[in-house]
Every structure is written in C-alpha cells, then in structure tokens.
Design a protein that fits this description.
Elements (H helix, E strand, L loop, with lengths): L2 E9 L3 H17 L4 E7 L3 H7 L5 H9 L2 E6 L14 H11 L4 E7 L12 H4 L3 E7 L7 E8 L5 E6 L4 H16 L4 E6 L5 H17 L4 E6 H10 L6 E4 L1 H13 L8 E8 L6 E7 L16 H13 L4 H16 L2 E2 L9 E2 L2 H14 L2
Parallel strand pairs: 1-2, 1-3, 3-12, 5-10, 8-9, 8-10, 13-14
Antiparallel strand pairs: 4-5, 4-11, 6-7, 11-12
Helix pairs in contact: 1-10, 1-12, 6-7, 8-9, 10-11, 11-12
The structure holds 1,4-dihydronicotinamide adenine dinucleotide and magnesium ion.
C-alpha cells in the first residue's frame, strides 16, 4: 500500500482540538490497514509567530512542498491583533496558497439527512443536497493590478480594483471542474457576468472551448452569477459542479455552505497544478471555519469539518474515494443517532464534546467495517 506523506498544521484556537480528532481517525485507518500515512507536523499562524516571529517558516514550507497533501486546521485570533502585517497569522495561509500554487478551491455543500431541519431552507429543498463549487483562487479582482486608493484632492477619493484573467487560468480551472464532474453526476454550471464584464466574456469562451475539445460527454450550462445566486436558494439540487471566478466563488460558496447548516460541518480542498516531472498535484485540505477563539480550549468545537477535510484528501489526493465514503457515512451515522456538538444543536439531540464526537465517528467506522 502506498504511504501518504501528510503534513498536519493544527494552527491556532480550536485548531489543535479538531486536529486531535483527525489523528484519531487516521489511527483507526492505519490499524484497519485501510491507509498508510507518514505524518509530519509543524506550526502555522499565531503559534508559528510566537515561536519564530513569522506566520510560517521556510522549513515548514519545504515540508509542505515535499508532502503529498497538507491538512490545515485554522489560524488567527485576538492574541495576534497587533503583530506586524507581514507576520499576521493569515500570512501563513496566504503563503501556503501562493507557494503551492493552489488555484482551485473545492467547496462541497452536502446536506446530511439528519440536519435537513437545521437549514434555514425547507427540508425538501436541501435534503440529499450534494453540490461542489469550484472557485478560482489565485487570480481575478483580489490580485489584479492596479489596486489603489487615490486622493483626488477635491474631497473625493478614487478606489480601483482590477479583474484580470488569462486564458490559461480559465482553461486549467475548467479542466478541474470537468474532471470532477465525471466522477459525480457529469454536469458543470459555469458562472460569470459576460453581459457586463470582459473577463466574463473570456471566461465563457474558454470554458466552452475546453468543453467542446475534451469534455463533450459532460453537460455544460452557463448561468450568470446573480441568477445563480437566486437559483442556489430556490432549488439547489439542480446543480452538480459549479465553476466560477475568485470573487463570485467567494460569495456563492458561502451561500451554498449555509444551505447545509453549521460552519463546523464544512470541509474544503485547494488543489494546485500537476507537476509534470512527478505527476504529483499539490493540495491543501482545511475546514471552512476559522480558529473560533470564542470557544477555543473548551472542548466543544465540532471536529466534523476537519475530519471531512481528511476524507477529501483521501478522495482527491490519494485516490481512496471508498475510504472517504466510509468516513462520510460514519459522520452521517453519528448524526442519525442524534449526537451533535453544540453548534448544530437540533431538537432532541444529545450534545457531546469534540473528543466524544471523534470517538463516536471512530466507533461508527468500527461498527460498519
Ligand atoms: P470562525 O469561523 O472562527 O468563527 C465564527 C463562529 O462560528 C464562532 O462563533 C465560532 O465559535 C463558530 N465556529 C467556527 N468553527 C466552529 C466549529 N468547528 N465548531 C463549533 N463552532 C464553530 O470565524 P471568526 O470568528 O470570524 O474568526 C476567528 C478567527 O479565525 C479570526 O482570527 C479569523 O481571522 C480567523 N479565521 C481563520 C480562517 C482560516 O484559518 N482559514 C478562516 C476564517 C477566520
Ligand atoms: Mg468567504
């Protein structure tokens, strides 16, 4: 069996608490002979700043590059509000994304049956929901130059952000989306605003070209981003994979996420390019939530987003989709049994600790084996 080289970056706040439960699941997978890991651990964010005065060290970056995948929990917190800008906790995250060239952000929105009533939408709208948003992560308006605020000297200021997309950036994210659709329900919805934005025109053109050349077997539709936002809350089950740019993806993925309940439930993946020499794709997996300083150290954080991120690593980096399915089924089983962490309290549920949730998921894996 191949040994997966995994770098664990627990970070700050609830990070170490939820990472401990991932280690529990990893321990079970190894004992069962389902997967083999070579684990390294390092610091990122505020904890790295406390030790090294920077949010991630070069040595940790080297380990991240050498790993098959990085698993990161969360960074940040009020303790580091006053550290220099370039050493702030988020800088560690940004450097990982940049140096590993993680251009594709995968945000699944899955509604576990037991939580369909926890959504703000009706049960029939979200029950059984399983969509995947693929957001371009390294281009677009967050990075384009010029990016300025100028004083016009007449009591007015002018702010400029610039949206730039090149063909290759759209081409590669489109391919990620089409490849993923083939492993799912074979449908891609591409979203932009070609009616008012030149980047939208190019986006639509390139996605269509990639589709017609190499993915004719996948259904492709185009949906303007504002219309898509409406459709997402009206009838989200019509979608399978949604591919969109950095800005629209930021907003749309948060909308999709909230269809399914708590922040503590949501994993994500960020994928880079395939290295031509080694065939390896750089990848980082992390929960969508932050370091939750308000509940850190209390042992009540929900570890499901973090454990779900491990499942994504198994599916997308290690070609072990079946093992990922088993982990997700175990999560579903624990929720079906009425066990909840405090953030997903539903009527009549039994509220348990972070550790008890990790233990329950392992017990469920055990029972189902
Ligand atoms: P947050 O996601 O940390 O917390 C928002 C709310 O959700 C809080 O009430 C928190 O208790 C709750 N929550 C989050 N994750 C939870 C979990 N697993 N289980 C139970 N409850 C959970 O976002 P917030 O408060 O805006 O940011 C806190 C810190 O985290 C800040 O320093 C921020 O910069 C950082 N942050 C880091 C991110 C990352 O590492 N990727 C992402 C978002 C924020
Ligand atoms: Mg966001």
């Amino acid at each position: 069996m191949a040994t997966h080289k995994l770098l664990l970056l627990a970070g700050d706040g609830i990070g170490p608490e939820v990472m401990a439960e991932v280690k529990r699941v990893i321990g079970w997978l190894e004992r069962e002979g389902l997967a083999s890991f070579a684990i390294e651990e390092d610091l990122v964010g505020g904890s790295a700043y406390d030790a090294h005065k920077q949010a991630i060290t070069d040595a940790a970056m080297d380990r991240a590059k050498a790993a098959d995948a990085v698993l990161l929990a969360a960074v940040g917190g009020p303790k580091w509000a006053d550290v220099p800008y370039e050493a702030r906790p988020e800088a560690g995250l940004l450097r990982l994304r940049k140096d590993l060239e993680l251009f594709a952000n995968l945000r699944p929105a899955i509604c576990y049956p037991a939580l369909a009533d926890a959504s703000s939408l009706k049960r029939e709208v979200v029950e059984g929901l399983d969509i995947l948003i693929v957001r371009e992560l390294t281009g677009g308006v967050y990075f384009g130059e010029p990016k300025t605020i100028t004083d016009l000297g007449n009591g007015q200021k002018r702010a400029i952000d610039t949206q730039i997309y090149d063909t290759y950036e759209i081409d590669r994210i489109a391919r990620v989306a089409f490849d993923l659709a083939r492993t799912r329900r074979n449908k891609v919805t591409s979203s932009e605003k070609h009616n008012v934005m030149r980047t939208g025109v190019l986006w639509k053109e390139v996605v269509t070209k990639v589709h017609d050349a190499d993915y004719k077997d996948v259904e492709l539709e185009h949906n303007l981003a504002d219309s898509l936002a409406m459709q997402l809350v009206r009838w989200p089950k019509q979608f399978d994979v949604i591919v969109t740019d950095n800005l629209f993806g930021d907003v749309l993925s948060d909308i999709a996420a909230m269809l399914t309940g708590s922040l503590g439930m949501l994993p994500s993946a960020s994928l880079g390019a395939v290295d031509a020499a080694t065939g390896k794709r750089s990848a980082m997996y992390e929960p969508v939530h932050g370091s939750a300083p308000d509940i850190a150290g209390k042992g009540i954080a929900n570890p499901i987003a973090m454990i779900g991120s491990l499942a994504m690593a198994l599916r997308y980096s290690f070609n072990q989709g079946e093992v990922a399915d088993r982990i997700e089924a175990a999560i579903s089983g624990v929720l079906d049994a009425g066990k909840r962490t405090a953030d997903i309290r539903t009527a009549g549920a039994e509220v348990i600790s972070t550790q008890a949730m990790g233990e329950a998921i392992v017990a469920e894996l055990d029972a189902a084996r």
